[in-house]
Amino acid sequence: MTTTDLDFDSVKALLRSPLEQNQRVGLALLNPITIPKDPELAELMTNSNDKLLWCIEFDLAEKVSLIKLDYGFSHRKISLAPFINLEKLYLNKQHWNRGQIPFHALQKVTTLSLTGHQLSYFPHGINALKQLDSLYLGKNCFLKIPAQISRIHNLRVLILSRNRLKNIPTQLCQLSKLKNLNLSQNHLTTIPRDIGLLKKLELFNLSNNKLTELPTNIGELRRLKSLNLSCNQLKSLPNSIRNLTQLEKLNLRGCPIAKNKGFINRLQSFLPNTDIQFNKK
After folding, report:
1. Structural element, H or E, at residue 54
2. Which one-letter DSSP state was computed for residue 231?
3. How far apart are CA 90 and CA 66, in angstroms?
4. How confident is the model at residue 47 (pLDDT cuts 50, 70, 90)?
5. How many CA atoms lie within 13 A of 187 on its CB side?
6. What pTM was computed for the model?
């Protein structure tokens, strides 16, 4: 069978097979020159540790754009160094050994998810990912975020929910392209006063923290569409909140201020197009 006659649907069927022998044959049939841009094929090529090894064996590693694994990565001692054109890396609920993820060699990665690793430290080397657009680090054990996070200049999505953060470095506010910031379910008592520098922010989740107040500069987030402040200890909001005229949803459930119907009514008059969610009883 020539590469021009190759039936990629048949290849995908082999890669979906529960039999490892069939999966290996499916990868062996592929020619690095003729692999089409097919999202399903891209995922099927690398959704197991064995497939990663076979991609290396059959000289397919440089054609891999997506790796998505949910278990067992560290046990096989696989290095991702050959996957130099990798764009999206999902290693959720995984552990890895030093050197398995050479971030400096993965310069085309735009999406990185290390959710649910129980990491207590910010992974060394992530700052080397100059094209990184989306970073998912939820469900870990971070106590702090390094100031060097400001070096990831192209970041648009940053998910740090369900960690143990007590504060956020001011340098995070230098991520000027950020559109989605999730800091929910941490132990935050304050947020940086420079938060207003995030001019492009549209989604901001601060729910389930220990916030007692917000900085006045939050009113400078003029593009904000969703602000989740639920389950905090907020008894008031800065007057600048009325500047958030693009706000579509404001969640105040579980906050002391949500019980103040007079305040809620005034806030609704300032933000008539905003769906304000609060305690109704």
Report:
1. helix 49-57
2. S
3. 8
4. very high
5. 8
6. 0.93
